[in-house]
Amino acid sequence: MIRINEVKLPLDHSEVALHDFVINKLSINKDQLVDIHVFKRGYDARKKNDIYLIYTLDITLKDVDEEQLLTTFADDHQVKKSPDTSYKYVAQAPENLTERPIVIGMGPCGLFTGLILAQMGFKPIILERGKSVHERAKDTFRFWRTRELNTESNVQFGEGGAGTFSDGKLYSQVKDPRFLGLKVKQEFVAAGAPAEIIYVSKPHIGTYKLVTMVEKMRRKIIELGGEIRFETRVEEINIDDNQVTGVTLSTGEVIPSKHVALAIGHSARDTFKMLHDKGVHLAAQSFSVGFRIEHKQEMIDTVRFGKNAGHPLLGAADYKLVHHCKNGRSVYSFCMCPGGVVVAATSELESVVTNGMSQYSRSERNANSAIVVGISPEDFANDPMQGIALQRQLERNAYILGGSSYDAPAQCVGDFLAGKTVSQMGDVEPSYKPNVKLTDLSTSLPAYAIEAIREALPAFNKKIKGFSNADSMLTGVETRTSSPVQIKRGKDFQSINTKGLYPGGEGAGYAGGILSAGIDGIKVAEAIALDMLNA
């Protein structure tokens, strides 16, 4: 096939425009054009009233010498040979398999580690401390309604991981020369995701669709011989002479294995402590803290898309912002959720943590995003456990500021910027459940973070007019942007000082979001499979 990159067409182009472009570009006749496959579709909205769609197309031809065609277009960066994007399994389990690999955690990384191992015939045992995604959803929505927190079944813990209660974004900036991200998205489509996630530039799924998809992927793993245990917490990873020998569960049961994938997510703080106590090499890692900011989605749509606001191919508008502050800190938007809500995302008692969530429709009245400040290891003495302690301190402080009832502390942007005592709610109604308490947010984060955010918000207003309007709403605190811990691993994906332990995903410090965690899960599965075959 032939690939044509950077095909630029008007937002409302005709159905035949792609065919006409290809025929004219390649100087072929219409009978030679068999098929046009859209590999990617994005948009250029730099001129909001003159928006263009940008395509990458894979072209199937007949009666055409493709090698000669490529020679003709050798100096044209638009026309290239289509790469092979198919996924190829690196191994196949032997029939006399005597050992089963263990996967700890069933977020995106653990899910794909387990799925790929199962597809290669290695019959993994997946251990998830939380509940199945359906039961977990009940516990999570109950907490939002009643403030009754289940510390083992919530936004952070349970089948599907933290990404289940998010916008379900499926894009990443990680380098992906093997197109593993495409494999992730193809498995999601097979489980019921909209087919468009394969080719749109900023695909998303939404919470409700993710729930049903995860259930289907679980059934697929089981059909392939995998075993999944919910409400099963790993109490200890057993290590003998720097070699993993298995795991001990909270029930006391021991499961032997010399190949353990660790896909625990960024909130398994008790597991981090256990690993630290056992001497597994952990390093401090940068993370960020801040607030969720809410605006009316209609305003964001108008500023970003102008007269094209509401166009079905554009959907609800998003944004990405960054500002480098005078005090040396950087402030940036994170996990922007168009047409979504701010959710209670704590996993610990007497703590408040915020996150953002959208459904596939992105039809809620508000847009929300984290506005966060970078925290470096030097801020917590280069000690990974102190990074966790800092997160915990901020979350418990937010709990107190919110009235010690799991309500979140909140403040209008105008009052926050002016350093005024709280006045009243503005036009932007906060979406956080259970509820918010208007208060002074200046004591909710370190002084340098407050200073940086106060500088950044007016700067963001220059890029998105209305961003720092007085009525915009801040809700605190956002602390779980990424793991403060990295579990160091080598090129073989094993811990650098514990053979047989394969740290992966966001909690281990190797991913940031659903897609990159899924990609890392595939790589971990491949490393385990190859090592098991060579053992």
Automatic annotation (TrEMBL):
| UniProt xrefs under InterPro entries | FAD-binding_protein, FAD-depend_C, FAD/NAD-bd_sf
Q: Which domain of life is it from?
A: Bacteria
* FAD-dependent protein C-terminal domain sequence ranges: 286-481
N-terminal signal peptide: none
A Pfam family for this UniProt protein?
A: FAD-depend_C
> What is this protein identified as?
NAD(P)/FAD-dependent oxidoreductase
Q: Report the source organism.
A: Photobacterium kishitanii
